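Allow me, if you will, to draw on your knowledge of protein folds for a short while. The matter concerns a single protein, recorded as an amino acid sequence and a row of backbone structure tokens. Kindly check, if you would, that the fold set down in the tokens agrees with what the sequence suggests. You will find the record immediately after this paragraph.
***
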Amino acid sequence: MRVTVINANTCIRAIKVSAAIAAELKPEMHFVAIQRNNNGFEHTQCPWYPYTNHIDFLHALSKAVEAGGGMDVFHVHNEPNWMAVGAKAKYPDIPVILDTHDLDLARTGNPGEAEVKALMMCDGFAFPSEGYRELVHDTYPALAQKPYAVIHSRCNKEVIGHIIKSGPFKRISGIVYEGSLLSKSEKFPYRDHINLFTELIKADINVHAFPSNPRNLPYHYFNIGVCIWPMQMYLDLLRAMTRFDWGFVGGELECEQRKRAMPNKLFEYIAAGIPVMAMNVPEAEAFVEAHQVGVSVKSVSDIKNAYGYHEKFRKNVAKIRAEITMEQQVPDILNLYLEAEKWVKQNKQNIKPTSDTPGTTKEPSKSPTLQESLKA
């Protein structure tokens, strides 16, 4: 099976998904991305085709297809979304899966033209949560006909095994937050945690953060007493988080993004072996409660009342974290590829390249179908 993973910056979800597929099925894997970012995963040593602009992207895509003697599926991780549009326009007979983990439809409520085109043109969806699936299908009912799978951003069993084998660092009291931290952001107001963190620190609860935007981190977080940790390689980050009592997901603001989210950080806390506090993220709250790996909280008062139970939930995390893996979802991903191939064949007469598609190439040599590849 020949899979080309397309992603601008080789984000961690793209690595998680492709690492799981590579480990289980050992397909021929290709990456088309602006930059290489292996984060400790060996599989990203596979052929990599860089690009810097739209034209370069099409050339890189052609190189991947040529190197594979054809291609069975393009798995495109948004954002940006134009890559899915470009891939489908250039290769209309190759299934395009749109991995919708960063939709502005959820984040800002204002999907751009490229996002809408990508949703309409792709042949199937990998949704990061049931909430994202529901939002897309409710907004664009016709898209419910296309194949889809809900694929959580779980960590890989190789990564979890490494953390377990390495063991935790010496404990430090406090709650840890991993991710972007902003202040008074109009576009992403849900990334502003100043008020909440201020109240937690006033309540004598230490707050630690591994911000994904350290160069642009608002100084307010330093001023209120948040302990800011430096950026780290992925495996080092997860091991660093083993120190803390709780991992935090969500925030005070109720919004569409949180209503729909099952973020990476939820599963990274679990991989690190620490329990989760989830606030105003209903799907994530239901998950941690169902698996007994954390608690749902609605206020600083709730956080204070639950804080002392971290050892109880930490034991639960230790029991089941090796079972909450991306590899468990590989059958769903693989089935999605197969269903997308069927979708392309059934709708071939309706899929035509656009007249302004640059860089047309010769048809690749005939190759086995996905189903034939699986049987081989």
Notes: Confidence is low (pLDDT under 50) at residues 351-376.
